């Protein structure tokens, strides 16, 4: 007590000096702490990498960063790495400041540190591509963030994509591929190079110790798949497939013994086990040794070297590859292909919630993939896509019940149904061209499926309903319709949109609320006056079999109306006045239709659709009878 009183007395006598020293010490500690934390969390752009996790509740340091359980026993702060740091604790889509300089390219190298900063629950979700697939990649990212997932990374195969994604706030890394920025086309040498890059990427990431959900850019996520994948913790690899016949009717893994479709590597999940790493290494070596092997074929060959027995009685996993790898085949009903989603709607019939859709089984190249996703309202487009110059032209198609439901579902009844729709679409294309509007394509009904090989109409054992709403690329050459053709040969371009666009939530109110309904009537009747003073939102009665001059006279007053919808286009337009324009229009739209494939027991087995079938009395739905007949009808 005497010692304590003495201390108090000493402090009392030297209080001014002590307080001065005390304040100086405190200020020194505060300033030192500020500089220490500034060094660790500096936002200097030169020292930053691509992106960091959107989580705010943990530090982002180096590979040596300690987890929470270790902090209780550690009394020293680890020294930060002097290498490039990813110090952007921002959510995805938060764009960098415009006055910030982009970090050097080397800061975007794929490293364990970079992946660690994006990982959640030890899982990273990855896709990759070049600039030609920028819109697919943005759609992929948007769908993931919409379902609450941010543990993702995008590999950029060219610097143009890398820079574009960086400035949009998307986590990106450089694959060092130095690839072309254009669409390389399925099956091309560059396409195969992309496949090899995927395998190299998998082989690079697995040794980091993270689970990898690898995706192609032409797929989208509809529901968080991570809880589903976690149901199979002992699986080394879980892969999607091209299976079109269900082997299960719930959300279990496919019964591997009944799977006849190829394993599809557009969606597959890898755990960093020794078996998985061994598979990735051998797969990579196979492809690098022979650049003619398609990556998916190589994967199927190597995994099927040994298949079976089952791992156990319940999980659905199977031993594969070297006899040790535990493989699971994701159910095609909910990890959907382009067939099980867009044609069969298998998930819908089985009352299941789909996790993903991959735009396989389609016939319109990259443009066909976009269009399918747009039809399903799953594609991310800029706002101007929903408000094109000149506005929209839409119409309600008419199909007699007998064409849909009467008689057998045969090649003949299918073509009768399609031809009936083609004739209406042809008229609508002409009116859209005349009014300089974008045509909203109608939903298309089919009675039989389209594939690459002979079949009886629908695949036996599949869940394809007849008739069914078929994707536009089953009949029309979507890639040709969207291609810029020279006007001197084909006349003015005719832009199109998917049938669902007017129901899309992204359609702006100013478009949705600017609407004119048009009903065809018989000219000469008292109420068929085609008055051009009809108010927007009202009903315009317009004579059937109108001329080009009549269309231009009436609809010139409605140029500012965003949507003009006809109740029907049957007998609406008698044709272009100018023969040169009519010829160019015909030359254009003849190329818009494709083929159906394929009848059994005939080579070739495909049948050409014909935009002007009704002008050929002898036209029949039969395949080419001679080699000289095997060409499009133009």
Automatic annotation (TrEMBL):
Keyword Amino-acid biosynthesis attached: no
Annotated transmembrane regions: 21-41
Organism: Lupinus luteus (European yellow lupine)
Domain of life: Eukaryota
Single GO term (MF): arabinosyltransferase activity
Domain Nucleotide-diphospho-sugar transferase, chain residue ranges per copy: 149-373
GO cellular component: Golgi apparatus
InterPro entries xrefs: Glycosyltransferase_77, Nucl-diP-sugar_transferase
The protein, known as: Nucleotide-diphospho-sugar transferase domain-containing protein
Keywords of this entry: Membrane, Transmembrane, Transmembrane helix
GO BP annotations, alphabetical order: cell wall pectin biosynthetic process
């Amino acid at each position: 007590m005497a010692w304590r009183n003495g201390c108090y007395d000493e402090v009392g006598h030297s209080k001014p000096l002590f307080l001065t020293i005390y304040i100086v010490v405190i200020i020194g500690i505060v300033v030192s702490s500020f500089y220490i934390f500034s060094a660790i969390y500096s936002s200097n752009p030169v020292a930053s990498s691509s992106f960091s996790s959107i989580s705010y509740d943990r530090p982002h340091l180096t590979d040596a960063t300690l987890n929470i359980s270790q902090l209780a026993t550690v009394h020293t702060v680890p020294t930060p790495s002097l290498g490039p740091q990813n110090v952007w604790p921002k959510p995805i889509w938060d764009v960098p400041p415009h006055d910030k300089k982009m970090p050097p390219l080397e800061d975007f190298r794929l490293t364990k540190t970079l992946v660690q900063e994006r990982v959640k629950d030890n899982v990273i979700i990855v896709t990759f591509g070049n600039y030609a697939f920028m819109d697919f990649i943005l759609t992929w990212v948007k769908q993931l963030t919409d379902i609450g997932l941010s543990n993702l990374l995008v590999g950029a195969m060219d610097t143009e994509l890398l820079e574009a994604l960086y400035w949009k706030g998307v986590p990106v890394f450089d694959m060092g591929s130095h690839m072309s920025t254009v669409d390389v086309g399925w099956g091309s040498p560059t396409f195969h190079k992309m496949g090899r890059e995927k395998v190299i990427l998998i082989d690079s990431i697995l040794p980091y110790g993270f689970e990898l959900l690898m995706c192609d850019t032409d797929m989208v996520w509809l529901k968080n798949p991570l809880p589903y994948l976690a149901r199979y913790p002992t699986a080394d690899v879980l892969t999607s497939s091209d299976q079109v016949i269900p082997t299960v009717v719930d959300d279990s893994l496919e019964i591997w013994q009944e799977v006849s479709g190829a394993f599809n590597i557009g969606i597959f999940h890898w755990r960093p086990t020794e078996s998985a790493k061994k598979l990735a290494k051998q797969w990579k070596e196979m492809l690098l040794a022979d650049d003619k092997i398609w990556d998916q074929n190589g994967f199927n060959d190597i995994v099927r070297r040994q298949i079976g027995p089952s791992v156990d009685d319940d999980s659905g996993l199977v031993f594969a590859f070297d006899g040790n790898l535990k493989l699971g085949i994701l159910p095609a009903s909910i990890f959907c292909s382009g067939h099980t989603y867009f044609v069969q709607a298998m998930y819908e019939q089985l009352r299941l919630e789909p996790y993903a859709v991959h735009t396989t089984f389609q016939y319109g190249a990259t443009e066909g993939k976009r269009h399918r996703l747009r039809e399903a309202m799953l594609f991310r487009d800029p706002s101007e896509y929903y408000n094109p110059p000149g506005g929209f032209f839409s119409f309600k198609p008419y199909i007699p019940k007998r064409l849909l439901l009467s008689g057998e579902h045969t090649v003949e009844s299918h073509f009768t149904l399609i031809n009936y729709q083609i004739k209406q679409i042809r008229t609508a294309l002409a009116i859209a061209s005349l009014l300089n509007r974008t045509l909203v394509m109608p939903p298309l009904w089919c009675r039989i499926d389209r594939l690459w090989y002979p079949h009886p109409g629908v695949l036996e054992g599949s869940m394809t309903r007849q008739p069914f709403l078929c994707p536009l690329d089953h009949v029309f050459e979507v890639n040709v319709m969207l291609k810029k053709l020279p006007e001197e040969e084909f006349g003015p371009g005719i832009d199109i949109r998917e049938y669902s666009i007017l129901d899309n939530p992204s359609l702006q109110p100013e478009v949705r609320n600017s609407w004119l309904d048009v009903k065809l009537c018989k000219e000469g009747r008292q109420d068929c006056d085609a008055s051009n003073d009809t108010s927007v939102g009202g009903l315009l009665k317009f004579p059937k079999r109108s001329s080009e001059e009549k269309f231009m006279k009436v609809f010139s007053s409605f140029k500012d109306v965003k949507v003009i919808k006809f109740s029907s286009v049957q007998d609406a337009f008698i044709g272009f006045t100018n023969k040169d324009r009519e010829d160019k229009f015909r030359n254009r739209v003849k190329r818009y239709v494709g083929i159906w494939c394929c009848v059994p027991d005939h080579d070739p087995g495909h049948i050409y659709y014909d935009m002007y079938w009704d002008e050929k009395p002898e036209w029949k739905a039969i395949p080419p009878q001679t080699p000289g007949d095997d060409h499009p009808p133009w």
